C-alpha cells in the first residue's frame, strides 16, 4: 500500500467504526458511559511510515505518575509479557503506548483490533499509574 492510500484507508476504517479522526489522531472509546459519568476515550496518534503504521497514545505525563521511581521497572515488566503493545518513556518523561503494524497485509479488521487494543492497554496503565482514567 502506498503512503497516500494507506492514510486514506485508515481514516475510512475509523469512520466506519464510528471513531472520530482529527488530523492524525483518532478518539477511541474504551469504556461506555455509566450513570453520572461520560464514556471514557483514549486519543491515539496514527503515523504512516515506510513499511507500516505506528499507533501511539500518551499514557501519562511525568508529573501525573504516582510512583515515578519505579516506572521504568514497571514498564519493563509489562513489555516482557506483551507482543503487540509496548510502553516507553520519551525525553519529556511521558509514558507512551506504541504499536507497529506492517503495511503489506494490513486490513481494516487488523488495524481496528490493534487500535482498540492499544487504547485499552493505555487506558488501563493510565489508571494504574495515575489513579485516573480521565
What is the end-to-end distance?
Answer: 36 Å
Outline, from the CA principal axes?
globular
Mean pLDDT across the residues is 84
DSSP, total strands: 6
Low-confidence stretches: none
Largest sheet, spatial ordering of strands: 1-2-3-4-6-5
Q: Proportion of β residues?
A: 25-35%
Report the sheet with the most strands, covering strand number, pairing sense and barrel closure: 6 strands, antiparallel
What order do the helices and strands follow?
Answer: HEEEEHEEH
| Rg calc | 15 Å
Summarize the structure in short:
Helix content is 35%, strand content 30%.
Give descriptors for this structure.
six-stranded antiparallel β-sheet, alpha+beta, 134 residues, 6 strands, 30% strand
Describe the structure.
A 6-stranded antiparallel sheet has the order 1-2-3-4-6-5. 35% of the residues lie in helices and 30% in strands. The chain starts with a helix and ends with a helix. The chain has 3 helices and 6 strands. It is of the alpha+beta class and 134 residues long. Helix 1 (3-16) packs across helix 3.
Topology:
Elements: H1 3-16, E1 21-22, E2 25-31, E3 40-49, E4 52-60, H2 71-80, E5 86-89, E6 95-102, H3 108-130
Antiparallel strand pairs: 1-2, 2-3, 3-4, 4-6, 5-6
Helix pairs in contact: 1-3
Amino acid at each position: 500500500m502506498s503512503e497516500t492510500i494507506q492514510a486514506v484507508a485508515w481514516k475510512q476504517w475509523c469512520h466506519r467504526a464510528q471513531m472520530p479522526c482529527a488530523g492524525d489522531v483518532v478518539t477511541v472509546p474504551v469504556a461506555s458511559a455509566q450513570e453520572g459519568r461520560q464514556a471514557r476515550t483514549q486519543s491515539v496518534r496514527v503515523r504512516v511510515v515506510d513499511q507500516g503504521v505506528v499507533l501511539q497514545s500518551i499514557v501519562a505525563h511525568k508529573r501525573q505518575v504516582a510512583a515515578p521511581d519505579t516506572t521504568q521497572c514497571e514498564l519493563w515488566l509489562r513489555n516482557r509479557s506483551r507482543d503487540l503493545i509496548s510502553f516507553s518513556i520519551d525525553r519529556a518523561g511521558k509514558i507512551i503506548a506504541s504499536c507497529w503494524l506492517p503495511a503489506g497485509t494490513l486490513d481494516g479488521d487488523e488495524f481496528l483490533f490493534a487500535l482498540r487494543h492499544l487504547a485499552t492497554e493505555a487506558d488501563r496503565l493510565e489508571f494504574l499509574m495515575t489513579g485516573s482514567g480521565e
